[in-house]
Each structure stands twice: as C-alpha cells, then as structure tokens.
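Fold this sequence, please.
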Amino acid sequence: MLYIANWVELLNRTMSKYCGDSRLAHSDLMEQRIAIGWEALSQHGNDLRIAENYITSYSGVMNPAAGENTPRLLAYLAIGVGATPVWQGIRMLENIAGHELQSPASIEALAAGYQGANDALLNYYRGEGYYECGCQR
C-alpha cells in the first residue's frame, strides 16, 4: 500500500526532525499545508492532509489544551470521539455547498484522526513516545 506509506513516511520524517515533539511536528505540517493553500487534490497535498489530521489528534491527546493535568481519556473523548468526525462533517457540508473544493471531505483523513487519537492514548498510558530517537533536548 504505497499510498499509506507516503503519509506515514511524511509523518515519521517530521516527527524525527523534531525528536518526537508532536507540537512542533504539528506546526510544521500545518505550515506546509498553508504553503500549498490547503490543497488536498494532489497526492502530496492529500498526504499532507492525512498526516496533519493524524498529528492534530495525536498532539491534542498528548498535549491537551486544558493543561497537563487533564485526564487523557477526557482529551481522547474530546479530540478522537468529538472533534475528528465533526470536522470532517463540516468539511463535507462545505463541499456540498460548493466551498473548500480543493480539500474535500476524506474518509482517510477521518481514519487518520482516529488513529492518531488512539495511538496517543495507548502511548500515554504505556509511558511511550511516538518516536524514540537519540536527540539531545
């Protein structure tokens, strides 16, 4: 499955670049998406969108906006169960209305968002990071 390997490789390279810091990786992927005008019709644009959806959910669970003391299960419910499908639903409604057609709703982006939230929750409770590297922080 070359298609999946493309976004996973993009995600792994970005996480490696920032020594596993999902917040920095998220910012980097967002900047790349902004630079191409949020386009997701090309293979690269779609790979960026899927990787960005994964890392948005992953980082949202690992680094909750409400603070470090937020129970991760609560963050998971907010991000993985709540925000992920709502955002793709909004995207679908925008597409139906004729807006944001350069970035259509995507089942792959939805699945990546769920996968990111799931991976974060499991990694958090296992005490593991997404990307282990020999970086000096």
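Residues 88 and 106 are 7 Å apart (CA to CA). The chain has a mean pLDDT of 85.
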